[in-house]
Amino acid sequence: MTSLLSLFPHGWQHYLLGGLLIGSGVALLFVFTGRVGGMSSVFSSTWSFVVHRPFFQQARFVGSRGWRLVYALGLILGAFVWWMTLGQQAPQATGVPAWQLLLGGFVAGYGARLGNGCTSGHGICGLGSWQLPSLYAVLTFMATAFITANGLAALSGLSGGGQP
Amino acid sequence: MSAGRHPLASAAVTLLAGALFGFGLSLSTMVQPQVVLGFLRFQDMGLMLVMGGAVAVALVAYKLLPRLMTKPVLDEHFHPHPSTWNRDTAVGAALFGVGWGLSGVCPGPAIAGLGLGNWDLLWALVGLAAGALVQGWRAKP
User: What are the extents of the domains in chain A?
Assistant: First the structure.
């Protein structure tokens, strides 16, 4: 038991509870509207408001840009409610250099849209609907993320005090 | 909103669904890139519990509900979203992982960060939006 708990040095309850809440949001959206709500599509669908190239004007973006934006707004609202209550309005920062956030964000944004899904689209919704292509996608991005994160840590000697 | 005959109710439910998602992301600390990078460096396996919990609930909803209900509460039919496996999916997923491993940020937390006053995450949000723009610009419709 102790060896199992050592996998979670910061406790495990908040992870499981948070995951169940995320799943409940996805389920609620599906029960009421029949929609499958991954998160990365909102980046393409919102560009369709201002970019008139044919790619962005596809029905799958134009037809979903309204609800996807509302869904994203809800995401901000939910995070805000947590911050005001359990989060005790503590100042938040990432501790990750800006260039890593910007460059990583760019590559992740490009990749998520090329691959039609991210951690929520392929991860939660794709696995949740038992789709093999999504499982392959999850295994692929987990593998390259492990390699990148560990490679970067090794390169910069940034072991964070806990590198095994 | 193009949700059948109940645009307002549909928008309200969509907002609430997003809020549950955002609250869960915050509670589980997935909005903190350090925690995600800690998982990717095998220091804390919490992300597996988050994903496992979320997938379990989604699985029940996606697989069970269409058998119990003929249509969703506010629309005429369910909108399944089949994923496909091809070269783009493979390359895209691989690139997504590289970016995720570099920043510790994926689309949900980058958006949710706006509600936490975590302005560092704006860098990632700008990056994600720019990446999506360039992808669409280069793509053939």
Answer: 96-164
